[in-house]
Amino acid sequence: xxxxxxxxxxxxxxxxxxxxxxxxxxxxxxxxxxxxxxxxxxxxxxxxxxxxxxxxxxxxxxxxxxxxxxxxxxxxxxxxxxxxxxxxxxxxxxxxxxxxxxxxxxxxxxxxxxxxxxxxxxxxxxxxxxxxxxxxxxxxxxxxxxxxxxxxxxxxxxxxxxxxxxxxxxxxxxxxxxxxxxxxxxxxxxxxxxxxxxxxxxxxxxxxxxxxxxxxxxxxxxxxxxxxxxxxxxxxxxxxxxxxxxxxxxxxxxxxxxxxxxxxxxxxxxxxxxxxxxxxxxxxxxxxxxxxxxxxxxxxxxxxx
Length: 305
Ligand SMILES: Nc1ncnc2c1ncn2[C@@H]1O[C@H](COP(=O)(O)OP(=O)(O)OP(=O)(O)O)[C@@H](O)[C@H]1O
What we know:
Pfam families: ABC_tran. By secondary structure, the chain is α/β, with parallel strands linked by helices.
């Protein structure tokens, strides 16, 4: 087993009385593109700030590239590329001035690569930062995050300020390029259709807790929507976790974790359901906003013990 690039073990963080992260454990392996998913306020940015040593944890262990960010934040800054959600930049500088200003902070700054990204992202070198559009600011932030060829790239909602065409290009070209170079990418987002084609691993964070970390393909195989007669639900709930149930004509559509076991038990009963494959968006929604009857939860209780 290789050493993980990122490891969080039982990490907690509060701001005053508000507990923002509860017992968070995550692992990101070298070369992975890791999608860190959560709704607004779930705790994604707080986790990222802990990884960069910009905040201190209250409890738990964190290792990034083998270092403790609370102690080695400066060393890490040289080895990690970070694009913040709301990147603050010196508005009075021109694009080329800012790039020249930032370069000496990094030992591995690659001037040719910076020029290439500036060209590819069509950034106007002589324009002042304060006159750039939002999308241009994101693209400039990316140049600054990537030109020192970091081993780990952390992108906090990077596609947020980009138009749909730029977003597609971003995913197809940039992430593929980073993957091709073997870089590890942690990509925080709630624009899931953007993440789906590029992520190897997915973690779903909700209200400061990790609900699931799984390889994207495994998650898709494990979580399915089954359309079946309502009276069969308790049977399913005994072998699988029902995340969401909603009416579907005379039947119900149940989104379940553990689809294989559910299908096996329904096959034994001679009542195979209609199976619907789900995209990441639908899986995410089932985990964070799924609704299940209270009576079904009672059936499920023994499973949780
Ligand atoms: N410095 C702070 N002081 C107090 N509360 C904070 C601070 N930073 C974050 N929070 C709170 O912690 C919670 C998690 O915020 P965080 O920014 O980590 O969420 P997020 O998942 O990144 O959300 P978004 O997708 O909206 O950026 C929120 O309720 C937020 O208000």
